[in-house]
Design brief:
alpha+beta, Heat Shock Protein 90, 2 domains, five-stranded mixed sheet, two-stranded antiparallel ribbon, 66% helix
C-alpha cells in the first residue's frame, strides 16, 4: 500500500532534518570537554533566534509581505528583522555563556560577526525555501481555479444535454400514445431506464464503458419502437467493453443528431452506427443520409448538440481524441476516436 504524506508531515520532516543537520554542524568542531556546554549554548541560540527567524520569513514575510508590498519592502523588512535577531542572538549567547561560567576569549565584535553570519545563512535558506513554497502554492491555486472553471463548464454543458434529450424522448412517447398505444408501455420502460441512467450516472466523472453502451442501445431500441420499419438502422458493436472508462452521455449526442437530421424529408432514411472497441481505444462512426434541403445546414450543422459534445471532448480528452465530421455524397458522417 502506498503511503500518502501530507503537506504538514512534509514540513515537519523538513524542519527536523534541517535543524538536526544545523545543530550537528554547529557542534562538530567542539572538543570533548566542552561539547556539552557548546551544545547547550548552540541549541538555545537555535531555538530562540534561528528557528523563529526562519518561520517568520517563510510563514509571514514571503506569503504576506512579498506578494502585497513587493520585493523592495520585503527585502528591507527582512533586513530589519535580521538586525533585531542579531542583537538578540548576541545577548542570548552572552547570557548563556556567563550562566555556565564560560569566559569568552574572543572580542565581542567577533561574537557578533559569527552570530550575524549564521543568521544570514538562516535567512538565505529560509528565503529560498519560502519562495519555492510560494511558487508551488501559486501554481496549485492556478490549477485548482482552472479545474473549478472546467467543472463549472462541464456541468453547464451536461445540463444542456439532459433537457434536450428528454424533450425528444417525450415527443416520441406522445407520438406512440396517439398512434399505437400498445407500444407506449415498452417505451415508458425504456424511458425509465434512460432516466435512471441520466439521474444516477451522468453526475459521475467517468463510468464503465459498458454502461454508456447499454444506455446507447436503450436509446436505439426506443427509436426502433417509434419508427418501426420506416427507418433502416444498422447498429453494430465490434469488441467487448471490459475495464474502460468514459465520460457519461458522451456518445448519445452523435446518434441523437443522426435521428434528428437523418429521418425527415427522406424517402428511405438510413442510419449506420458502428462501434469498435480495442483495449483502450474506442471508435464510433455514425452516418445518416441527408436530404438535399438540409445539406447546407449539415455542413454548417454541427448544431448545438454536436458543438456541445465537441467542447466536452476538448475539455476531457484534450490530447486523446480525434473528431472528424464530414458531408459527402448525400451522407453526413461523424467519426470519433477516443483513447479511453
Amino acid at each position: 500500500m502506498k503511503v500518502q504524506i501530507t503537506d504538514t508531515q512534509k514540513k515537519v520532516l523538513f524542519h527536523l532534518s534541517l535543524w538536526s543537520i544545523w545543530m550537528f554542524l554547529s557542534v562538530s568542531n567542539a572538543r570533548d570537554e566542552e561539547l556539552y556546554i557548546r551544545t547547550v549554548i548552540v541549541s538555545t541560540v537555535i531555538v530562540t533566534t534561528h528557528i523563529p527567524l526562519f518561520l517568520l520569513n517563510t510563514e509571514w514575510l514571503i506569503p504576506h509581505i512579498f506578494p502585497r508590498k513587493g520585493a523592495v519592502v520585503y527585502f528591507w523588512s527582512l533586513m530589519g528583522i535580521l538586525a533585531a535577531f542579531s542583537f538578540l542572538h548576541y545577548h542570548i549567547f552572552k547570557w548563556v555563556a556567563q550562566y555556565h561560567g564560560i569566559i569568552l576569549d574572543w572580542g565581542s565584535g567577533k561574537v557578533i560577526m559569527k552570530g550575524t553570519l549564521a543568521l544570514v545563512m538562516v535567512a538565505a535558506i529560509s528565503t529560498g525555501y519560502g519562495l519555492l513554497n510560494y511558487v508551488v502554492r501559486q501554481e496549485r491555486q492556478q490549477q485548482e481555479k482552472k479545474q473549478e472553471r472546467l467543472q463549472s463548464e462541464l456541468s453547464f454543458l451536461r445540463s444542456q444535454i439532459s433537457p434536450h434529450f428528454i424533450f425528444n424522448v417525450l415527443n416520441s412517447l406522445v407520438y406512440l400514445i396517439r398512434s399505437k398505444s400498445e407500444l407506449a408501455e415498452p417505451v415508458i420502460i425504456k424511458l425509465s431506464e434512460l432516466m435512471r441512467y441520466m439521474l444516477y450516472e451522468s453526475e459521475n466523472t467517468q463510468i464503465p464503458l459498458e454502461k454508456e453502451l447499454a444506455y446507447l442501445q436503450n436509446y436505439i431500441e426506443l427509436q426502433k419502437i417509434r419508427f418501426e420499419e420506416d427507418v433502416e438502422i444498422r447498429f453494430h458493436i465490434d469488441g467487448n467493453a471490459t475495464d474502460q472508462l468514459i465520460e457519461p452521455m458522451l456518445l448519445i449526442p452523435f446518434v441523437e443528431n443522426a435521428y434528428k437530421h437523418g429521418v425527415s424529408m427522406l424517402e428511405n432514411p438510413v442510419i449506420e452506427i458502428d462501434i469498435k472497441i480495442r483495449e483502450q481505444d474506442l471508435d464510433l462512426l455514425v452516418k445518416n443520409k441527408v436530404a438535399p434541403a438540409t445539406a447546407d445546414l449539415k455542413d454548417a450543422g454541427t448544431g448545438i448538440g454536436l458543438k456541445n459534445v465537441g467542447r466536452r471532448l476538448e475539455l476531457l480528452y484534450p490530447e486523446a481524441h480525434t473528431l472528424n465530421i464530414s458531408h459527402k455524397n448525400g451522407w453526413f458522417s461523424v467519426h470519433l476516436h477516443i483513447d479511453t
